Amino acid sequence: MKNKNLAKRVKELRKRKGLSQEELTENSGLSLRTIQRIENGETDPTGETLRRIADALKVNPDELIDWTIKEDTGFLKLLNLSALTFIFFPILGIIVPMIMWVSKKDKIKDINKVAKGVINFQITWSILVFLFPLIILIIRALTNKPKEGETILLGPALIIIFLMFMYLLNFIFTIVNTYRIHREKGVKYFPKIKFLR
Prior knowledge:
The protein has helices at residues 4-16, 21-28, 32-39, 47-56, 73-81, 92-104, 111-143, 154-182. It is mainly alpha-helical.
């Protein structure tokens, strides 16, 4: 079967309109065998054939758009791996996956779920990466004196350790989730705030 989504959609719309295959054949000007092959998912129809079916069913051709949704784990893995651009600059880990998502939105199965998971995690991660050092620096500026037994370098050392941990965490989550996509499992990112729902 080449196209189960389209086959199901055409059959569903035809039945909803109360048409038999023969009536759809008559209304569309296509052969009965063509209609049968499309409904059985045995062929990928041309754009003209789809337009004629849409006209015969009195629907907008966009209602048959499900035929363009396909499985492409390769693109999903690439989308997930594109988040590694955070290594060069944290905001790139958001922008690059967002561009890839928008370019293929609603054309690849599960792309919305994967993209939202990646982007929500990257936004949350970026906020933490910028917020934590800022809080440490503010506290250091307000206290102005190191506590007894504390060296002046504790603040910067803590920031560096935190940043190293966060970069490693992001890298590991990205690689693990790419593997999960390869194994056809859903992505799992933590922590993440659902900015995109």
